[in-house]
Structure formats: structure tokens, C-alpha cells
Amino acid sequence: MSDPRDVVARFIATVEAKDVDAAVAMLTEDVSYENMPMDPIVGRDAVRATLHGFLGAASEVDWPVHRELVAGNVVFNERLDRFKIGEGWLEIPVAGVFEVTDDGLISLWRDYFDMTTYTTQLAALS
Q: What is the DSSP letter of 39?
């Protein structure tokens, strides 16, 4: 079994590098990506399209993890997801939950964040 903490750390590193193909390769075919409070995005192709959408506008991505807890195959983390858009940074506090399979793939990625914080900052950067 792969170490779930390492799997999630590698996944976050691929997102920070904006390497969508490498990130998606770390997901199961039927992955569920759930940005709470939005509807789940299911499957690698749908996640690929979503990642291209929100990483495409950013020239830099930085997701520092402040706290992390591993319980079996589940990784919980508290992060600050940062996206450099133009001359400013969009910064969203996030609580993330990842489920990792025995073969080292992420089958569930759920992020909790405040939508108003996101939309207000995004509007200010546009």
C-alpha cells in the first residue's frame, strides 16, 4: 500500500506545477472531486477539464498545507490555496479530504471552502 500522505503531497505538487495530466494520472477512473458547496465532478476527464479551467488563469499556484491528519487511507488537510492572477493573489482557506486506494490513487477529493471569499476575491482581480 502506498503511503496516503505521500500520495496527497505528490498530488498537490503536480497541481502547484500546473501539470494537469500528471495530477489526473494520480486519480482513479471514477474519482469524485467535490468542491463543497458545488455538485460533484466525477471521472478523470471531467476533473481534467475542471483543473484546466481554474489553473489556466493562474500564472502561479501555491497550496501550502498548514495541518494534516492521516487516518488509514484518508488524508485530511488544512490549506491555503493560492492562485496568482494578473498582479494579485486569490487566496482561499480550504479544508481538504482525500481517500487513497491501496494502489496509491486518489478516489475521492473533497474541498470545503467559503464561496463568498472566492467570488469576492475573483471579482476584485478581474
A: P
Task: Report the DSSP pairing between strands 65-71 and 60-62.
Answer: unpaired
User: Grid coordinates standing for 120?
Assistant: 469576492
User: Which class for 46: exposed (0-12), middle (13-18), buried (19 or more C-beta within 10 A)?
Assistant: middle
Q: Are 73 and 99 in contact (CB under 8 A)?
A: yes
Q: Which residues are catalytic?
A: 81, 111
pLDDT in tens, 57-72: 999 999 999 999 999 9
Rg of the Cα atoms in the chain: 14
CB 34 within 8 A of CB 111: yes
78-92 pLDDT, tens per residue? 999 999 999 999 999
- Cis bond before residue 40 (omega within 30° of 0): no
The alpha-helical segments, DSSP class H, found in 1-126 are 4-16, 20-25, 44-56, 115-125
Whole-angstrom distance, CA of residue 35 vs CA of residue 96: 9
Distance in angstroms (rounded) separating the CA atoms of residues 113 and 81 = 10
